[in-house]
Sequence to fold (452 residues):
Amino acid sequence: MLLFIFGLYVMQKKQISFSKRVFTALGVGIVFGLLLQWVYGSSSEIIAETTSWYNIVGTGYIRFLQMIVMPLIFISILAAFTKLTITKNLGKVSGLIIAILVGTTAVAATVGIVTTLGFNLEAIEIEQGEAEIARGAAMEENYTNNVEGLTFPQQVIQLLPANPFLDFTGARSTSTIAVVIFAIFLGIAYLGVRRKEPEQADMFAKIIDSIHAIVMRVVRLIIRLTPYGVLAIMTRTAATSDLASIANLGKFVVASYVALIAMFIIHLMLLLISGLNPITYVKKAFPVLAFAFTSRTSAGALPLNIETQRKLGVPEGTANFAGSFGLSIGQNGCAGIYPAMLAVMIAPTVGINPLDPGFLFTLIVIVAVSSFGVAGVGGGATFAALLVLSALDLPIALAGLLISVEPLIDMGRTAVNVSGSMTAGTLTGKWTKELDETVYNDQTQRLETQDI
Fold:
């Protein structure tokens, strides 16, 4: 393992591209983890002791990403307000971004529904072992005690910040959207002060821009650890995964990736319809999508997301808004496809016809509305599924039964989430005529190793 780590270090020194380093770590981690499981067995004490050491690197890397999420979201939105290019049509830009995010999430729900019906997935097909049953029951009881029973207006109120400093700690499941709302209030206040007291506003803008630069530098320091974190995480995951459970749920995994690929193609079609070359988008977006795929955190991908949009010719303010909003609104993979698939699978178990137009329409609407406030970190998809299933009065234990394959599916979901927010920013720039198409089509404007 030390040899592999040294190899990654050499690749970095030789300026090997970020995506190649990450995928090398991904492949090596999977192979090494499977080798450990083959030699010792997934439940052996040797594996448990070995992976506990890998957790220092893997879990430590995830903790660093979680550490910077809230400051990053907060300062990115405030920085968007300090950019002159976006203040001229703030309402139009923010409205378009949110509309695209929510609209594509509704489309993602439809894709999830069609895929589930096409693969004929049913909840009853999932074999429930004792551990899975206990996990699902515990999840259902915990969710019932904390969320279920609230009316829709009460759930909306839960999104609003009462104590933003508490939300900065991530203490609530809706902390992300609360921080976004708090930052928007400060940004609007900044615009008001700028009209009446420009000197004070200029000082504030300089402070925000300085903090933004420092926070982004911290994020880049953490992102440089990605290949090592991915290596440790994938080694642990491959060594301890229950391969029998994954094989049993293989049909669901395949269906999930078919839906995710279909949604990514829809992103490309939207760009094509808008007169933009989708191949150019894929080439420029690949590094950040690779990072999102391997790290499984939309929030951690935010700086690369924004940087990639800038390489696509999106104005900086629009890129900041699209990237930040995409962390808590309309995540196509986690909040769109996944909850819709579970709902269609579970519906027959309680006597609901999954082909009923009324049920399908209600499901799509609830998925779109529930996408507000889903955190762009690990576990966001499960929370989104719990919200949707609860709103439809469906049993939620299935969300717990699928945890054994969560990491495998979550990689693809995260990449689609990030692609959705970048697509929203690019389309908004195009539709508001602020997109620099010369930069978009410039093949030299790509995310390079030195950018990370």
Remarks:
- The longest helix spans residues 45-81.
- The radius of gyration is 22 Å.
- The CA atoms of residues 111 and 149 lie 29 Å apart.
